[in-house]
Amino acid sequence: MLSVKKLTRKYKNGSAYIKAIEDITTNFNVGEFVFVLGASGSGKSTLLNVLCGLDTKIEGSVVVDGIDTANFSKKDWAIYRNHYVGFVFQEYNLIEHLKVWENVALPLQFQGISKSIAKERALKELERVGLGKFSDKKPNQISGGQAQRVAIARALITNPKVIMADEPTGALDTELGDKVIEYLKEVSKDRVVVVVTHDEELANKYATRLINLEDGKVISDSNFDSNYIEETKEISFDRPKMSLGMMFKFARNNIFSRMFRSIATSTVVSIGYISIFLLTFMIFGINSSLSDTVSSFVPEDQYQIYGTENVEIPESKLDELQDMSEVTDIRYAVSENAQFTSRVGTTQQITLNSVPYDEALLTQNVELFGRFPDAANEIIIDVGTAARIRDLNTVDEDSYEYIYNLIKNNEIDVFYINYSEFDTENKLDLGTFKVVGMIASETLAFSNSIYMDYDELLTASETIHGEATYREVAIAYLSIDKEADISDFKITLRDDHELVLENFFSSITSSIEDFMFTALKIFIGVASVSLIVSGILIGLVVYTSIIERIKEIGILTAVGAKQSNIIGIFVIESAILGLMSSLIAVLFSLILTRGINGLFNSFIEKPLSLLSSGLFEMTLLTPKLWIIGIVIGFSIIYAMIVGLLPAFKASRLNAIKALRRE
Ligand code: ADP
Ligand code: MG
């Protein structure tokens, strides 16, 4: 069933070669219980490893069921190891993080047999070696003798034709050793069992055939069948496969068994992702609250017009502009500071603004309660002012309606006091106005504005200054919104009228864009540094995990794992680490976002809002679900890519060396 011809295995030793085994020709038949004897270093293990298909760098040939293995691919060898051979090693080689029955079932699972059937068969096999009640224990909870019987159960579970045992009793006392050998003898009835030992007494007691090795050569063979004729049989087995679930289980166990290290690494790696989160949250937070704020008080079609030489714009010129088809409305920019007296008699600051030429301009981004003014003495006030007039301290969305009902149709006396001249006695009465509407939005909660008729405002301004102020700046509302047409119009204004047209909205937007660009550069810097650091860390952890698991990799290879399975395990392990680090980062980023926004709100935003009499509101950090999603996805993929190199290295490990390692 198994034969070798002129088998030699050389190892390079400096520039010379040493022959671990040399020119061995022999065969093995079903029913034989073969002992290979020899001093340490005589080549016993080497012979066994070749017969097992763990070592394929040979000269000569190995013939299995009449088929020369010379053309075996790596896959064929994996099939051979999984289906044909069962191994028993001196050090048991059980996988520590798997239960006893899981260790036994492992080779079956590589055959794609379902977990429940594999478990059933593993329990049966354990029953046979007398360990049925230990099936749920971990390898470190059973004795050496028991562990070796578990290893035998694992070797037998695929019902292989060949059992190879390398010094199976080496770590056991005589009594336990005898038990193990007796069991192997029993199973040799319908298969080949080859046991390597240097214990002559044991060999003489049980062997049906004895092979003696010395310096890699066979010096005696007690029952060599020289008339052996190899029957040729078809080998057709499915190639061994490791399910994704199984690879995942190994990866997960790798992480769980080193939980502290995994969490510590993920936490360090998460720092990079936290900074990415906070930075992007800030970019989005500032950007959206700035543009919200800006667009809530600067209509997009509102332009300012200056004289090119800083000259005043005469009223005639305004009329000229008014006649141009591009211009919807034009007026001087006038706003005045004034006061009003609240119900309880305290004086409050107020800004007087002109009502825009149409309702849509006033109410974009805000809610209008009541109506747009249609008489000179009618005004609209903002919700913050309304609340102050009625001495309410809190303004929120639910109270808008209530506040409006308190304020609607109130008459407000507005006046001007020149504080710079300490002339508090000398109030200038600007008139009494009737509240017909209220605008409300969160942004306006801290605001202080009254919107009144444009001419009324000019009159108020003239009352205060003797003439309306800021006449050098005019505000134009344009009907054009095509970028190209606006630039043409700008050129016409500059060349023919010596006027400069400037859009407040777009100048703020462009400074926001400048800010975004700078933030983006910082972001890219932070992101690349943190990615390099986290890449190195994850790579190191996976590499360490591989070093710690060399033996496990050897065992998996021995029972049929392919390179791709080993790569899979460690790539999945990296992926889990990547996922853990980004999840930790999400958690901390959200906590930090809350904290930072809270601090920003109480130390910067509120005082600034009060100082600037409203219209200043922003959320510093705005978490975005899609950013969180992208970063989590990225962290997984990135970790997998980083883990690929050490995983690939792991897959190329020499199984024999791996198994020999203690
Ligand atoms: P045994 O199992 O009988 O003690 P081995 O088969 O392990 O002997 O080793 C046979 C010879 O081959 C020894 O001289 C050993 O040093 C050499 N040898 C085994 N493995 C290697 C290796 N990986 N590299 C170099 N020499 C090796
Ligand atoms: Mg050996």
Bound molecules: adenosine-5'-diphosphate, magnesium ion
Biggest sheet features = 6 strands, mixed
Could you say what the CATH topology of the largest domain is called?
A: Rossmann fold
Which quaternary structure do these chains form?
single chain
Low-confidence segments: none
CATH homologous superfamily annotation of the largest domain: P-loop containing nucleotide triphosphate hydrolases
Second rung of CATH, namely the architecture of the largest domain: 3-Layer(aba) Sandwich
Entry keywords:
662 residues; 6-stranded mixed barrel; binds adenosine-5'-diphosphate; 3 domains; binds magnesium ion; alpha/beta
Task: Please give a structural write-up.
- By secondary structure, the chain is an alpha/beta fold.
- The protein has 3 domains: 2-240, Rossmann fold (3-Layer(aba) Sandwich); 254-295 and 510-660, no CATH class; 299-503, no CATH class.
- Helices cover 48% and strands 20% of the residues.
- The protein has 20 helices and 21 strands.
- The strands form 4 sheets. Strands 6-7-8-3-9-10 form a 6-stranded mixed β-sheet, sandwiched between helices. It has a 6-stranded mixed barrel with strand order 13-14-19-16-18-17.
- It is rod-shaped.
- The model has no long low-confidence stretch (mean pLDDT 83).
- Magnesium ion (MG) is lined by residues 44-45.
